[in-house]
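Appendix B, record 7
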Amino acid sequence: MVYRPKTEIGLELYDRARQNGVSFEWLTFDEWYGAKPAFLRALDGRGQKFVGEVHKHYVAWIDPPRTTTRPYRRRRRGRGRKVPRLVAAGRKPRHVEDLLKREPVLRDQPWEPWRVKDTEKGPVVWEVKHALIYPKDEEGLPDKPYHLIVARNVPNRDEIKYFLSNAPPNTGLRTLLRVAFSRWRIERCFEDQKGEVGLDHYEGRRWVGLKRHLAITAVSYLFLARVREQLRGEKSGSDGLPSPRRGRRRGEVLVA
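Structure tokens (predicted):
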């Protein structure tokens, strides 16, 4: 086995799926992937829309600074390089955390509460702000506009998430939030597999054995999920909370 970062493995899996005829309307990921600008540019270069979480120190501009192609001569020597660059007095990019605190378009924007989903413990509500930003490209210049979504947990307002999306500028906030908060389903899958199907019960020492164990638990979980779908119509909802799939089921709601 040769070490490769998870971003390269993820892109290889993505390309393989596309070659096999599988298409994805959206991708989402946590801030570990969002902290890798090369990974974000690779997805955008493939024409893949995403809404991914980024770190609070992700840098961008609210208003793109001016650029110039005038020749640049270091210490006024030589012919000078004629490449696009920021003007000398141009503003530097800021962390998205600073944009939220200092830029009027975000600082003065009122928080909008959204009920993201209903769970066994009740509704999950986040307050949201949204703006278009311009991240740095590989040359350090302002890139095309991206969506920045700042979400603050209502019960714990110290918990703030930052999401970045390359969707078209006219994409609605409801759609972006639906993708951004869809990761909880994957996390629930791992939780169920560990607690109900034995994903965390492997005690072997070999890589091949571990891969087989992962495959068995995944197939077992898929079987249980399909059987549950077939039997779902025989019982009514347990608590009467709504979901997008059925009239009386827990799940994702997304209402402002």
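Remarks on this record: Residues 237-250 have pLDDT under 50 and may be disordered. Residues 6-65+83-181 form one domain.
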